[in-house]
Amino acid sequence: MQKSVVSHVSSATPLLQWLVVLAILATIAVNALANLLPIAGRRTGEISDGFSSFFTPVGYVFAIWGG
Length: 67
What we know:
It is a single chain. This protein starts with 12 loop residues before the first helix and ends in an 18-residue tail after the last helix. The protein has one domain (about 15-65). It is elongated. By secondary structure, it is mostly helical. Helices cover about 45% and strands about 0% of the residues.
């Protein structure tokens, strides 16, 4: 005899999905604003250049932030 497996989907699932979409859109907006309206006149790439580290990706990697 097979046991039936009942999948319980919470009513919070649609809310969480919308919150994830909202968070992604907010992240994109903040990243765009960081380059359109640079903080203290400095773009994301310029701020990154101001800190030394053992590993810094090449410049085209920062294209994700538009800078």
